[in-house]
Amino acid sequence: xxxKANIGxxxxxxxxVLVAACLAVLTPVLWMVSTSLKNKTELFSDPPLLWPExxxxxxxxxxxxxxxxxxxxxxxxxxVLTATAISLVFSTLAGYGLSRFKFSGRGAFLAFLLLSQxxxxxxxxxxxxxxxxxxxxLDSRLGLIVTYISFTxxxxxxxxxxxxxSIPRSLDEAASIDGCGPARTFxxxxxxxxxxxxxATAVYAFITGWNEYLFxxxxxxxxxxKTLPVxxxxxxxxxxxEWNELMAASIYSTIPLMLFFLFLQRYLISSLTAGAxxx
Amino acid sequence: MxxxxxxxxxxxxxxxxxxxxxxNLDLEDGEFLVLVGPSGCGKSTALRMIAxxxxxxxxxxxxxxxxVNDLAPKDRDVAMVFQNYALYPQMTVGQNIxxxxxxRGIGKADREKQVRHAAGILELMEQLDKxxxxxxxxxxxxxxxxxxxxxxxxxxxxxxxxxxxDAKLRVQMRADIASIQKDLGVTTFYVTHDQVEAMxxxxxxxxxxxxxxxxxxxxxALYARPENVFVAAFxxxxxxxxxxxxxxxxxxxxxxxxxxxxxxxxxxxxDNRSVLAERLEEPxxxxxxxxxxxxxxxxxxxxEDRRFETTVAVREALGAETLIHFALSAPPxxxxxxxxxxxxxxxxxxxxxxxxxxxxxxxxxxxxxxxxDTEHLHFFDPKTHLVI
Lengths: 279, 388
Known about the structure:
The structure holds 2 protein chains of 2 kinds.
Chain A: H1 2-8, H2 14-36, H3 40-43, H4 58-65, H5 69-100, H6 106-115, H7 121-135, H8 141-165, H9 169-178, H10 182-190, H11 195-210, H12 214-219, H13 228-234, H14 243-264
Chain B: E1 4-12, E2 18-27, E3 32-36, H1 43-51, E4 58-63, E5 66-67, E6 78-81, H2 93-103, H3 108-121, H4 137-149, E7 155-159, H5 167-184, E8 187-192, H6 195-201, E9 204-209, E10 212-217, H7 219-224, H8 229-234, E11 241-250, E12 253-258, E13 261-264, E14 283-288, E15 293-295, E16 307-317, E17 321-328, E18 350-357, E19 367-372, E20 378-380
Parallel strand pairs in B: 3-8, 3-9, 6-7, 7-8
Antiparallel strand pairs in B: 1-2, 1-4, 4-5, 9-10, 11-12, 11-14, 12-13, 14-20, 15-19, 16-17, 16-19, 17-18
């Protein structure tokens, strides 16, 4: 109620600032769309065209016909969705355990999870390469999945730990007195309330994996195992850059992200626990 | 419905802090026992040990004749109402109340019947399909009650259930809870820091301080015969006036010396207190309740030698009565209540409160005569703080 009233009587600079911010964010996107619709001559015309005179979808077709783009796409989806699902399951369970049970070494474990996030990934590439080679997982989707979850689980666990801590413990206690064992308390009472936290965590894991370039580049080799970022990167050649195809491919790659967000954003609300306890 | 027995229950935390010390309590079948004490006295810990939310460090806890020390909360057959309600926000009111029944595998039709019955008692019929977030504080409180009563447990546990309600609602819910408990006849263990709740709701009241039980008695007995200084000061609002004094005997009979005042004392104060006669001319802790002080101008028949003169410091007109605060030139006594205000005046004067009739004309800054009803004095040992 309050926020609605605030928007109604907004500060005079409220909308101008919003519009400016939207322009700053959307201009590159517009340029991306416009470039993807240009033909080869329009790409390099001087002065540059804001919008092509004869927009063409040729680039959108050629990324699939001239390159194994469908494979990249499938690989990315399989790797990232699997890694996200696994991260979510483990970080949710770990976060709940860490937030609710006291055991020796808990603080040290949490610190260790955070510490693991402090290494620059470039430093880890060689060790990961050696490990994957030893494990026979080089140039495979499974290798990438293992790599990605090793990055996302620690941070996702922290996210879920924080979220579970915001759910009042007295709900666990009420459930245990009402007749729930530990598992039922978790699945029937606490987990439904953790949904917004799980969505935020899933979004984080998905974006992290979807945009990952370095490890995908190093750990895969054959066209059939490469992911989208690597595939798009290959469009930047040594002698020429197919800007229209590059932009078309980039636009394709943002579509799953947008769908993922659209589907999950309705769960990204903070008021699920409203009315549980007196604040 | 059952009895409950706490036999030497203690709680010692890992860091060595002893929250509850050898607590012994017997709850009779159908009894409403209130455990009251200042904040941090261990009363909630005691309740949580009965619920099974805290481990019992030592002692025996029985519900009925079952030893339940090591049972999980769900196997103890107790229901609990939390201070912050702890409602399941994703469930409707009906589902919240029915949840304990669902967990016991009771069929949907039966469940609905019992939920409606409980909702009827608590006047929640209209709210059954709403979520807790849509309810007012008082309604949420009643849903929490509903979730407890629908189970028909052996024992109700209530952890300051009214402390989050506003004053008016609290008075109403106080009466409602007491009458529901009476109708259902379920043994109830109720924890509060509010001595008014304790006095108005409990069949018996147990006063606890620093994890140690001080006194268990019916409210009237607790008020009339507190066993130590802490109970005397804690029970009653405004609290009992306490200061150091001395009993003397001279040609006029027995005298009470409070600072520089000497007041006549009837022989009846020694009735049932034979030890007191042996402690003449020794320092004692003297207590007298505000209602045993009166504006002398309102009761001219009050004996002259049972009055003293003082200056009005604060006047609070409450309508039916007027509270007068004044300083008495006698050393103050620390009752040990951490919530009480520190005494002012460098240890020489005590802050006292008198409950005068509304007709009093005493004004701030005036010198007035105060009549003390010396028949209703309390005496305590200054060292042990125990009643004499």
